[in-house]
Amino acid sequence: MLLPVVSVLFLAGCAVTAPELDRSDLMEDLSVQGIDLPESEMPRPSGELTLDEAIHQAIWRNPRMQQAYAKLDLTAADVVEASQFSNPSLSLSVMRPEGGGGNEYGVGLAWGISGLLMRGSRQEMARSHWESTRLQLAEGMVALASDTERAWYDAVAARQRAEVQRLESRAADLGARLGERFYDAGNISDLQRAHLRIRAAESRLKLEDSRQREREARLRLAHLMGLPGEVDDWELPKELPLPLAEVEERQALVDQALEQRLDLRALDHALDGLTEGVALVRRYRWMGDIEPGLEFEREGDGTRLWGGGISFTLPIFNQNQAGIGRAEARLADGEARRESLVQAVTNDVHQHFERLAHHRNRFGVLQDDLLPARELATERLQERVNFMFDDVFDLLAIKQEELAAWQKTVAALGDYWQARAALAHAVAGELPGGEPGSAGTFATAQLEHEPTAMDHGSMGHGDHGAMDHGGHGGMDHGDGDEGHSGMDHGDHGAHDDMDHGQGREGHEGHEGHEGMDHDDHGQQDQGHRDHSNHGHGGHH
Question: What pTM was computed for the model?
Answer without folding.
Answer: 0.74
